[in-house]
Amino acid sequence: MSTNVPRFDTVAVADEGPIARITLNQPDNLNPLGLVPLREVAEAAAWVNTTTASVVVVTGAGERAFSAGFDLRDFGPGQPGPGGGTLGAQMADAVEAIEAVTIAAIHGHCIGGGLVLAAACDLRISASNTNFVIPEIDLGIPLAWGGIPRLVREIGPAATRELVMTCRPFDAAEALQLRFLNRVVDRKDLHSAVEELAATLAAKAPNLIRTTKRQVNNALEEVASTRDGWLGQTLIDAANQDPEANAAAVRYLKSLRG
């Protein structure tokens, strides 16, 4: 167990020996992924690799959201935030590069970049009340951060095209049917289900768990590589120069305000 647990402004971490935790910790704002949280999640992921943990639980604080995705205060239309696409890709890559097996415990809202974060984890357990949506196209930007290849890996190209292009919401039952989730449980049972799975995995030989994870990840790179994730910022910058994309973003934001 580490005696040097870092402190962050927007993320909470814990080292409990075989199990570590990374928690998005802005519940009043639905745990958004702005520039600071993106950096801090990546730093937390790197820190986890210095511990003895063989399992890492990734979740969002509070009852309302796993994550509301990218923070519009940093990524508004025409102002995506300096390096936001690059930072998002680095965050997702850092989570995927955690040597321990990662479990996303998902509840409430799981939106856009929050869904990419969940996709970067190895296993996903969701509360039945979770609402998923990928609104990027309606916001006038492409889904970046390596989100497309990660979704293609998990749910296939056809479902990825539909959900990203239509921006339609979908629930936990559909996400399970699409095989994005390993399991769906009642909200009251989410914690116990995640803890049971974490304890089961933590009881296995850590080296064999890590080896299995590396084998699967190597195979996934052959299915859909994330190596060009840095292109995300280029694509976002291009979208912000597109008048039609900017107009779509304005319309969408107005619809949210009623």
Characterization of the model:
With 258 residues, this protein is α/β, with parallel strands linked by helices. The chain has one domain: 2-enoyl-CoA Hydratase, Chain A, domain 1 (Alpha-Beta Complex), CATH 3.90.226. It is built from 10 helices and 10 strands. The strands form 2 sheets. It has a 6-stranded mixed beta sheet with strand order 1-2-3-5-7-10, with helices on both faces. Helix 1 (35-48) links the parallel strand 2 (19-24) and strand 3. Helix 4 packs across helix 5 (157-166). The longest helix is centred in the C-terminal third of the chain and has 18 residues, at 206-223. The model is unreliable at 76-82 (pLDDT under 50).
Brief rundown of the structure:
45% of the residues lie in helices and 17% in strands.
List the helices and strands and how they pair.
Blueprint lengths: L10 E6 L2 E6 L10 H14 L6 E6 L4 E3 L16 H13 L4 E6 L2 E3 L1 H8 L2 E5 L3 E3 L13 H9 L1 H10 L3 E2 H6 L5 E3 L4 H13 L3 H18 L7 H9 L3 H15 L1
Helix pairs in contact: 1-2, 2-3, 2-9, 3-4, 4-5
Return the CATH architecture: Alpha-Beta Complex
Just give the CATH class. Answer: Alpha Beta
H/E topology pattern:
EEHEEHEEHEEHHEHEHHHH
Report the average pLDDT across residues.
89
Q: Which oligomeric form is depicted? A: single chain
What summary fits the major beta sheet?
6 strands, mixed
Taking strands numbered 1, 2, ... along the chain, how are they ordered across the largest sheet? 1-2-3-5-7-10
Beta-strand fraction estimate: 15-25%
Rg for CA atoms: 17 Å
Shape: globular
Could you give the count of β-strands? Answer: 10
Q: CATH H level: which superfamily?
A: 2-enoyl-CoA Hydratase, Chain A, domain 1
Q: Kindly give the count of domains.
A: 1
Structural class: alpha/beta
- Our measurement of the CA-to-CA distance between the termini, rounded to an integer number of angstroms, reads 49 Å
Our count of helices gives 10
Within the CATH hierarchy, at the fold level, what is the topology? 2-enoyl-CoA Hydratase, Chain A, domain 1
Uncertain runs:
76-82
Helix content: 40-55%
